[in-house]
Structure formats: C-alpha cells, structure tokens
Amino acid sequence: MIEFNFLYVIIFCLTVVQSIIGIGILALGTPIMLLMNYSLIDCLNLLLPFSIITSCLNIIIISFGKNINKNNLHKIKNFFEKKILIYFFLICIPSLFCGLILLKIFQNHINFKIIVGIFIIFSLVFKIIYNYKISRISNLGKKITFFIIGIIHGSTNSGGALLSLFISSLNKSFKKQSRFSITFFYFFLALFQYLIFFLIFDLTTFPSLLIFSFIICFFGLITGNYLIKKVNEFYLKKSIEILAFFTALFLILDGFSLLNI
Fold it and tell me: How far is CA 4 from the centre of its chain?
C-alpha cells in the first residue's frame, strides 16, 4: 500500500513536469515503474490515462493562455499544415500499432528493463549528436524517423523523448510554441496508443480510476503552470535528461542481474 501511494506521488510530480516541458509521465514513469518491478503492460495501463489527460488539459490551457496570441497561432497553424503532420498520422500511428503487436507477441520473452533502458540512452545520445541536424534531414529521413518512433513507443513506451526532440528541432523558428506542438503530438501519440492497446490486449478500465487520474492531473497541471514562470525550463530539461540517463542505466544493470550475467 505504501509503495502504491509512493507511486502516485511520483506520477503527480511527473504530471507537473509534463505540464511544463510537454513530456515526462511516460518517458520517466515507465522506467521508474519497471525498476519497481511492474510489468510493461501495467506501466501502459496505469500511465497512459495520466499522460492523455495531462496533455489534453495542457493544450486547452496553452491555447487560451496569454503566451499564444493570434500571430503565434498562425505560425502554429502553418507548422501543422506541413508534411510533418501527415507523416505523423499516416506513418507514426500505424507503426505504433505494429509496435504494440510486437509487445503482444514478445511480452513474455523479452527483458524490457534492458530494452527500455537501451532505447532511453539511445534517445539521449541521438539528441547530443543530431540535435542541430534534424531540421535538415530529407523527407525520406523524416518518414523513417516517424516510423522508428512509432515502433519504439508501441513496443517499449519509450519513444516520447525521441518524438519531442524531433518536433522541437523542426520547430526552432518559434521556440516559444514548441511546448504547444510537443504537447499536441504527444497527446495524440498517447491517445492512439491507449485505444490500440485496449483493442489488442482486451483490457478494461474503471470510471473511478479515470476520475482519480483526472484529479491528480488537474492539480499537477495547476502546479506546473504556476511553476513554469518560476523555474528555468532549460535546466529542468537537463535535469530530467540526467535523471532519465541514470534511471535507464539502473534499468539495464538490473535487467542483466536478473539474467545472472
């Protein structure tokens, strides 16, 4: 019971983080829950509703906030009219379905602690090497990237960090709106993942859990949008990346220890 209450405290904190930088609940919640010896299926079942509700509420708050004026909304609209939006829905979402199928097939045959840890570190290394080169990649490269993100996220729940890097790098012309665009894509990624997840794994949810999720997300969102004016977003992102790295490292070490290597 104490562990379960502690988990919800962690989720609340990650809700605050996600309301500020656009991601956090899945990117950090998944490895943390795996370290607590939850299965990857349990991670998806518990974390996805929190991620969807937080992103949805954040989109509403940002859309009606003072930081989004008519000129900025026009820039966002132009950004969404580009091929990137088509690539996301026609390539990333179908590959997300493929990733969830792979999870269904191999859920009892793969050590997901090792796989998730490797993908998190891969995303961080990818950011260091290619952060300033992503916007210059070809249309074919963008298609391949979206396909990889969908496969990774569907099979390991760890593609969000790579998606946020990709979107923010393409969105450098109006950085102040990168939070909105990341939240927008992250919302639909989690939403479709949740819908496909329930179809494939034939699970059920309870209204009381969704209400509880909404309450936590609401207060987390209020806290996050209050703190966003008081914290340095750059340093917060760097702190999250460092935490993600060490969490991934512990996941890999723990995963190999279970293999008696």
Answer: 22
DSSP class of residue 56?
A: H
| Interatomic CA distance for residues 249 and 261, integer angstroms | 16
Which amino acid, one-letter code, is at 83?
A: K
Q: CA 207 to CA 223: how far, in whole Å?
A: 24
pTM score of the predicted model: 0.88
Query: CA angle, 54 as apex, 165 and 226 as ends, to 5°?
Result: 90
CA terminus-to-terminus distance, the chain:
32
Q: Which pLDDT belongs to residue 145? A: 87
Compute the residue count for the chain.
261
Is the dihedral angle over the CA atoms 233, 116, 189, 78 positive or is it negative? positive
pLDDT of 174 reads 45
Amino acid at 182: I
Tally the domains of the chain: 1
Average pLDDT per consecutive 10 residues, the chain (261 residues; last block may be shorter): 75 93 90 92 92 93 65 55 82 95 91 91 80 70 89 91 76 60 90 92 70 90 88 80 89 81 51
Number of C-beta neighbours around residue 78 at 10 A: 11
Q: Which residue has the tokens 């939006």?
A: 85
- What's the domain range around 12? 2-258
Task: Provide the token pair at 203.
Answer: 């699970």
Q: How far is CA 184 from the centre of its chain?
A: 11
d(CA 228, CA 238): 15
